[in-house]
Amino acid sequence: MNNSIQHFCQEGIAKLEKIMIDYAQDPSKIAEMVYSVTEAVTKLGTDIISEEWENFDQIIKNSPERKKRGWYVKDKTETSLITSLGQVTYHKTLYQNKNTGEYEYLLDRAMGLSPHERITEDAVARILEEAVETSYRKGGSNASIRNDIVSKQTVKNKIHKLQFPETKPLEKKQVKYLYIDADEDHVALQFMEEKGDIKKGTNNTIMPKLAYVYEDVEAENDRRKLINCTYFGGVYEGADGIKEFWCNINKHIEASYDTEYLEKVFINGDGASWIKSGRKYIDKSRFVLDKFHMHKYIIAATSHLKDSAEDVRSEIYRAIRKKVKWMAEGIFDKIINVTKSESKRRAVEASKQYIIGNWTGIMEQMSNKDAKNECSAEGHISHIYADRMSSRPLGWSETGADKMARLRVYHFNKGSMLELVRQQKKELPIAAGAEEVVLSCAEILQAERKAKANAGIYGDITIYSIPQSIRKILSIRERIWDL
To answer: How many domains are there within the chain?
Structure first.
């Protein structure tokens, strides 16, 4: 860091002064001034980072413990990493272990970098923050504030490898009712695994599922606000996938709420079998057919009746309010009998089957007047999934659709992208011959004399004190040998 700061004092400050002199000649050129200052300051930042990494590499190289453990210098390489500040170029040393024959950059071990890693975790977090909202390409362009570009293929690979943590539970509390709204999106597949592997006539749609748990609904500026809403989603296919989906939700409920105090959990949806199956996995749950779909099918069964359509709908709603199933069936049968068009008749029969088939869910709605069963799943599907995945002519792979659905859910649960990136890291193997490190007095004094010499006129500034130098050497060496 010493050299970078001295260089900036000698040249960087003069550059900043020139930028301000030029700006003073035309104060309207704010953008040009800001761009120039940003470039100068970020250049200082990347230089400091580069110098610090090279200092770490030198600390490892100078350590007597390195040879004791059988690591010998083989080569020195110039490399670079894209950080959120910009691309940082630096030198690192390649070692070979005489006992195992393995080659390794020990600096990578200390920094927690996997082999061939070229993007730091902060830059990956920036990529995910953009890609979850827009596209892989724009995510790659957002890697750093200096516009260092990562290819969209790299972004895709990063997203496809993501593993997501369990949803964080809320602070445990007591509520009488809980609500779960559930629905699914229809996302177009471009390919299953490789481009071109979907043939004509095959199913080219995948349906990521979405459910969210909340405690209540309240009005906020003429809009509905869900209290303590937590989202769950992804592509869960088959019986095992659906079971896993609902079990994850039930686990969250048990961790976040007093289930003995809890009376009912209302599962609101359109009547799809996978939504109804939630009753098997969510304790104290009841399925409730959402009003939107009920009205939709009643309108579909009566729209062709013209002037009498409104009267017939009223009869159906009356049967529902009275909770008389046979009365509702009879009304649908009458509609079928007076319908001449075969296609219309089939539509009425489908509506009858839907309403009668979901009668229990409709009655649950009628029987719990104090519950706030106001399903908003259609809007949430549009906001959480469709805005990114299906509202535009996009094509996905099965893996890509699943990972993006989960990433969107993680994002709307206010998850930290940096935490998500850090969770992906696996612990590196322990360095050969790792054991306790002892730092000698001679090493401490030698390192401090060198630091003082490099610091020049800045050698007496507090940040270059002996305790700081010792801490740095101890920290990097403990990091490399105690992993």
So the answer is: 2
Q: 347 and 364 in one domain?
A: yes
List pLDDT tens digits, range 416-431.
999 999 998 754 444 4
User: How far is it, in rounded angstroms, from Cα 332 to Cα 295?
Assistant: 14
286 shares its domain with 402: yes
Q: Which domain holds residue 224?
A: 177-417
Q: Each residue of 145-180: pLDDT tens digit?
A: 988 889 999 999 999 999 999 999 999 999 999 999
- 142 falls within a domain: no
Question: What DSSP string describes 138-184?
Answer: HHHHTSSTT-----HHHHHHHHHT--PPPPPPPPPB--SEEEEEEEE
Q: Return the CA Rg of the chain.
A: 32
Statement to judge: residues 451 and 308 lie in one domain: no
pLDDT tens digits for range 295-335:
999 999 999 998 889 999 999 999 999 999 999 999 999 99
Task: Based on the fold, state whether residues 39 and 93 are members of the same structural domain.
Answer: yes
Confirm if 10 and 4 have CB atoms less than 8 A apart.
no
Residue ending a domain, among 392, 417, 442, is: 417
437: left (phi over 0), alpha (psi -120 to 50) or beta: beta
b/e code 277-290 from CB counts within 10 Å (16+ = b): bbeebbeebbbbbb
- Please work out, in degrees rounded to the nearest 5, the angle formed at the alpha carbon of residue 424 by the alpha carbons of 145 and 205: 90
According to DSSP, the residues that pair with 92 across neighbouring strands are: 77
Question: What whole-number distance in Å separates Cα of residue 257 and Cα of residue 174?
Answer: 6
- Compute how many other C-beta atoms are within 10 angstroms of the C-beta atom of residue 305: 17
CA 366 to chain centre: 38
**Nearest of 304, 299, 339 to residue 316 by alpha carbon:** 299
Q: Are 140 and 127 in contact (CB under 8 A)?
A: yes
Q: At 13, is the pLDDT very low, low, confident or very high (cuts 50, 70, 90)?
A: confident
Instruction: Say how many residues make up the chain.
Output: 483
**Residue whose tokens read 């003995």:** 260
DSSP sequence for 218-277: EEETTEEEETT-EEEEE---HHHHHHHHHHHHHHHHHHHB-TTT--EEEEEES--HHHHT
Q: Do 407 and 437 belong together in one domain?
A: no
Three-state secondary structure call for residue 203: coil
